[in-house]
Amino acid sequence: MTLEEKLQLLPTEPGVYIYKDAEGRIIYVGKAKSLRHRVRSYFQSNRALDAKTRELIRRIADLEFIVTDTEVEALVLEANLIKRHKPRYNVLLKDDKQYPHLKLTINEPFPRVMITRRVERDGALYFGPFLPASLARRTIDLINRTFQLRTCDIEIDGRLPRPCLEYHIKRCLGPCVRELCSPEQYKEAVRDVRLFLEGKNKELVEDLERRMYAASDAMNFELAAKYRDMRKTVLALAEQQKMATSPDRDVDIFGYHREGARLALQLFTMREGKVVGRREFFWEDLPEEGFDPSAFLSEVLAQYYSTDYVPREIYVPIDFEDRELLEKALSERRGRRVHIIVPQRGEKRDLVELVEKNARLAFEQRFRLLKPDMQRVLEELQEVLELPRYPARIESFDVSNISGTDTVAALVVCENGRIDRAAGRRFRIKTVEGANDPAAMREAVFRRYRRQLEERNPLPDLVLIDGGRTQLQAAADAMRELDLEAIPLVGVVKPQGRHNEVSHLLVRGREHEPIYLDAHSPVLHLIQMIRDETHRAAVAYHRKRRELRDFTSELTAIPGVGEKRKNRLLRHFGSITRIAQASVEELKPFVGRATAEEIVAHFARQREAAQAGE
After folding, report:
1. 3-class secondary structure, 192
2. Is residue 548 within 8 Å of 522, Cβ to Cβ?
3. Where are the beta strands (DSSP E) in 443-559?
4. How far apart are CA 128 and CA 136, in angstroms?
5. TM segments (predicted)?
6. Is the pLDDT confidence value at 131 over 70?
7. d(CA 219, CA 207)
8. Which pLDDT belongs to residue 614?
9. Helix and strand counts by DSSP (H, E) for the chain
10. Is the Cα dihedral 74, 75, 79, 80 positive or negative?
């Protein structure tokens, strides 16, 4: 059917409409209380449209629609389709950084819980995001200690002769050994973890109590004690969650600042009466003409809460048309009433104004290129990388060579966001032959921190390694040999073919979770600055070593100049340039008159040849 024919057959039910261009790409997704009235309104000639909508309509070549039972279903479906297809003309929610989720792999025979920063449609269950990011690590540690799901990724067939250390320290049920844990016992633990992550603590406590009494009646007191301890742990956590989800303690607060086509949106996450996290979102291509803040906020909130945790209350700076509809959708998803509030006065309004102030500052720092608050940037770096301490001292390594010759490494030190040039070091790689950057990196890292330990000098809070997995692993091997595994190592990976950019970060021990930062992120700018400075230092030292080799080869090619005389000249004059400028009388004390005349004549011929070439 043609587009005109489809417009005639549109139903009056609620649903989602999908516009496509001439190449079949989805360019816009929208929801409607009545599909017929909403979609036809786009094509009414007397309708006043902004420039972006006029451009959208000009590109529409095809139409699809999905009918839903309710407006709430249409709202949820719209948000999911926008996040999946990222249509060009929709408001797209882009985060500066990816917060961790917990992934329960129920799509595996023996599920695991792991931390991930990407939510995918792979059959697993995802819970999160966790703010601050360290909360995800604490939660997974609690799960490992309490419910003892496996942490390995080996194939489980029950045929292994003995379990690993995780079983012996009571952090795994040992399903890899048939006699230790049956599939039914493991499924029971998985059900417990799922109830725990879904917040169904009352149901879990009752189930654990039932199992405790059943084990006791069967005279299996060790198992009964295990269920008793698990029940106590869940009860304690339930009390904490009860405190965290009271109306005045479980709040998300939004604020934004807009100028022209650019907008900065801030979200403050308040738990237990404290702000525990902040997220920033930025747009650069919003329509300046006809921009509707309420429609914008409606789309953003629907997308944000399509996968993320839903709090009890949400404070927003302005009202919007679909507020009650979104409240209903979020209440159904949470399982209890959710309130979206537009505070007008009092403490709640003060909180919204505080978030709006932070949005304005974020706008200034991002779009006006003002110097960011370095303490805030380093705190954000600590959160993004989940570092155990504030990264006041960062040390960075890079290796440089050409086809494996004259291999060197450079170290740059960054103290509180500023390069300390006096603290930098250079390394002439001694034990590596040929082009082997990982081995050269290992030597440089080992030599640096062995000396720091010997001289009792300060150690860094974070070490950056210019390179991918192999360089990162090589540096980790060196740190392990020195018993410095507690110092975080991060690989700075470049896009292929673009050496002046940063693609993503790899944290040692979590290499399977690459961290991608927004191109405008101040954290990325800091890492880029440190990496660039390290790269410049390594290349400059490599160039100096290569030039020295070339010049010294040139000296020994002059009749009468051997290794001893060459070294004597370089020690006295300091550089080949000063030797080339010296007179016979200045050179004579070190090499004799005849050789001094040969040297002066050699460099005179060079200068004549250079002038003739000009």
Report:
1. helix
2. no
3. 462-466, 489-493, 504-507
4. 8
5. none
6. no
7. 19
8. 42
9. 20, 18
10. negative
Check residue 241 and give its pLDDT. Answer: 46
Instruction: Give yes or no for a contact between 22 and 83, defined as CB atoms under 8 angstroms apart.
Output: no
pLDDT, tens only, 473-518: 999 999 999 989 889 999 999 876 566 678 889 999 888 888 888 7
Neighbours of 238 (CB within 10 A): 17
- CA 378/CA 613 separation, integer angstroms: 54
- Residue 613 is predicted with a pLDDT of 47
Among 4-18, 72-86, 115-129, which is the least confidently predicted range? 115-129
What stretch of H or E contains 454?
Answer: helix 437-454
pLDDT at 442: 93
Query: What's the confidence (pLDDT) of residue 248?
Result: 46
Q: Are strands 462-466 and 489-493 parallel, antiparallel or unpaired?
A: parallel
CA atoms of 589 and 97, how far apart (whole Å): 66
Instruction: Report pLDDT for 467.
Output: 86
**C-alpha dist (Å) from residue 358 to 150, 254, 340:** 42, 10, 21
What does the alpha-carbon distance between residue 443 and residue 234 come to, in Å, rounded to a whole number?
A: 48
The token duo for 441 is 């990196």
Report the alpha-carbon distance of residue 100 to residue 432 in Å, rounded: 39
Three-state secondary structure call for residue 123? coil
β-sheet bridge partners, residue 393: 415
Rounded Cα distance between 391 and 12, Å, is 58
Closest CA to 321 of 302, 348, 346, 343: 302
Residue 154 has pLDDT above 70, yes or no: yes
pLDDT tens-digit map of 202-217: 787 888 888 888 888 8
Q: Distance between CA atoms of 505 and 511, rounded to whole angstroms? A: 9
Cβ distance 230 to 212 under 8 Å? Answer: no
Q: How many CB atoms lie within 10 A of CB 246?
A: 11
pLDDT tens by residue, 175-201: 898 888 888 889 988 988 888 887 777
Give the chain's domains with CATH numbers: 3-85 (3.40.1440.10), 101-244 (no CATH), 250-370 (3.30.420), 380-544 (3.30.420.340), 557-613 (1.10.150.20)
> Which of 273, 272, 255 is closest to 264 using CA atoms?
255
Sequence-distant (≥ 6) Cβ neighbours of residue 442 within 8 angstroms:
474, 475, 477, 478
